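S1.2 Input.
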Amino acid sequence: MKVKNGKYFSALSIGIASVWFSSHCGAGFASGTQEVSYYVRHGWTAVILPIFSMTGVGLLMYIALEMSRLHQVFAYNEVVHKAFVPFQKVLANAYDVYRSIAMVLAPAACLAGGAALFNQIFGLPTFLGTLVMLVLTVLMCIFGAKFIRTFGTTLTVLMIVLILFITGFGVYHFRETIMDHISNRVMYTSYKSAFMYAWTYLNFQSGMWAVGVAAAVGIRYRNEARGAAFSGIVLNSLMLVAVCALLMGGMPTIASDPQAKLLPTLYMVNQLNIPFFNIAYPLLLFSALLTTSVGFVFTSQTRFSLLFLKNMENKKLKNAIISTGWLIIVWLVSQVGLLAIINKGYAASGWISMFLMIVPMSTLGIKNKMKYRKMEMEGLLPVGMDNRIGAEDTPAEGV
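S1.3 Output.
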């Protein structure tokens, strides 16, 4: 039977890419600490290596989305159990344990960053700032995948506008320093070190596939998965390169001065002396913190809803209980501080991910994707799990 491939760019595929970017653009991204740690402090390669990292993440995202689509499963545990056949009992269970731990880091960084932001702007005590972030995250998570896609897309548009606006002015202002770094191939470390840190960034960002899968409820077409991956690669690469270019204008100060290194983007924005940025940057940082927190907590919520409160009929109440419980654990981790989470926690998480996810997904995942794709082409998948003409047209309903 003929299989419909669908459109590359639909509301769903753009929504998935937006959720990926909004989850990527968190505390470390918007503050500039990630860019400085993993790219800018090494040298001029900061304007090209982010593309390498995001392309790698995007390829893994595509494989995971295809496995999710072909099996109509949207929790990361379910996807890896399908992707890692025939070693799923060992690899999938090991990844599930690791992932449950790793999913704490990004929202923990967001709670820590949010508490600091509210303290700086409104003078709120750290505890109250954290509580505001926690309540907002729970409220966003209880409404399900479609709402998360809409929410992520809306704030992604806002963040893109703000990033382009801030980096545009910044790159122009510091253009001589930036061009000097690029034209003279200025390096502060070595090319090997720059590549290894870019690879480390790819490693810990590779977990974004779980966020994309959780937001992919209703995906039916192969081209939707392709469109989501391609859109995500372009969007994340462009935004990451833009921020890296801006921060390059402050080298080597932003990599050595303790105050500048704490919030590099804010340090660079302050050098511009544009009053509007005193509003725009906090708004960008708040949006980044909230979307990342929501993306990761919703992904954990999707997973844990398969384990806890299985018989609870009120889905919104169930989601609220699970996300609140998870956020309490996240809050405890956030007490170690933003820089420690980004510099130590993310790096360690990334190298573990390489062995438990990147390698098996790039081998077993591709093999199993091709197997089930062939079954789809031959019309061997059950109705409702493929997109053959005559199959049910109504997408699966998500939580």
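S1.4 Remarks. The chain is about 75% helix and 0% strand.
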